[in-house]
Amino acid sequence: MKKWLMRCIMLFVCFVLLIQIWIFASLFWWRSHPVETTMFMRTYYWTTPDAKIYHQWKDADQISDHFKRAVIAAEDGRFLQHKGFDWDGMMNAVQRNEKKGEVVAGGSTISQQLAKNLFLYNKRSYIRKGQEAVATWMMERMWSKQRILEVYVNSVELGKGIYGVEAASRHYFGKSAKNLSRDQAIKLAAMLPNPKYYQDHPNDRRYQFRQRFINKYISHARLPSDD
């Protein structure tokens, strides 16, 4: 019994180490290569009948700064200040959730969200959060902030089977991501983090509120290239 237990523990440790090696190797490769697919894309394809994936990579200079600023304003106003984890934001989210008695705020940074999109699944668990933290820590030390933002806007979900700002821009506005106006960028960024719902409910009050919020703070959002 003891040997069997030790064997199970060793197998689990080896499995965890293999995952870390896979994440490290992927991050190293993606430092200079486009990210063509993510775990979120694969999961959607595997679990959705007749699923179609719409995605097209674009380099940072081919994406509107309006959208990049809108995403920072919407998702992570302290993006340039933290090292992957916004502890103040997390504490604020916990307090808001406790006050409301339900989950109304997340507190995850762009880096954390990207780590989850690239490597993990959407179901909440302590194991997933722990793996997300490890992947985020690696990413912040291997990639620049500019690279993190570039990959994020290229891989984030923005509708049913729609991933990345280029595919979203083509779908909703019939134009390249480089030519998005400020208002169009705000509408796309406001869809996060519930794009499938807002895609079908464009008049939802929370969606309209998010657009007003982003419009108010977008001019204060700084990009890595601003430094």
From TrEMBL:
Keywords: Cell inner membrane, Cell membrane, Cell shape, Cell wall biogenesis/degradation, Glycosyltransferase, Membrane, Peptidoglycan synthesis, Transferase, Transmembrane, Transmembrane helix. GO terms for biological process: cell wall organization; peptidoglycan biosynthetic process; regulation of cell shape. The chain crosses the membrane at residues 9-30. It is found in: Cell inner membrane. InterPro entries: Glyco_trans_51, Lysozyme-like_dom_sf, PBP_transglycosylase, Pep_trsgly. Residues 52-214 form the Glycosyl transferase family domain. This is Biosynthetic peptidoglycan transglycosylase. It comes from Acinetobacter populi. The gene is mtgA.
